[in-house]
Amino acid sequence: MEIDVEGGAGKERWICESKWWVGRKVDQAEVESLMRKGNIVKEEVGEGLQILRLWFFAHEGFTEEAEALMLKNGVLWSVREDLDGLLKHVGLRQLPELADEERNDHAK
Questions:
Q1: pTM of the model
Q2: How confident is the model at residue 10 (pLDDT cuts 50, 70, 90)?
Q3: What is the second-level CATH architecture of the domain 5-107?
Q4: Closest CA to 11 of 52, 49, 54
Q5: Domain extents in the chain
């Protein structure tokens, strides 16, 4: 199992998935995969875990089914524009523009 970003402090953990796909939206299957990863972490940490946050970043966004599933299950999500806005707000540089070849490498 591969987790893109995992962090936490005390009784809280965050698991984040990132898809830098160009021309393809994240669908329900990828969201279900993130949720399974969350369940595995919850089982491994045990009773000490009180808060588990799942966050999905997708450059091109999500299908309607994926958004409905995330909404139903409390999964946070953002797209490129959201993340750029957050980075700007905290005074960090925005995400770089990648050449088409680099984008395809990130999609694998």
A1: 0.81
A2: confident
A3: 3-Layer(aba) Sandwich (3.40)
A4: 49
A5: 5-107
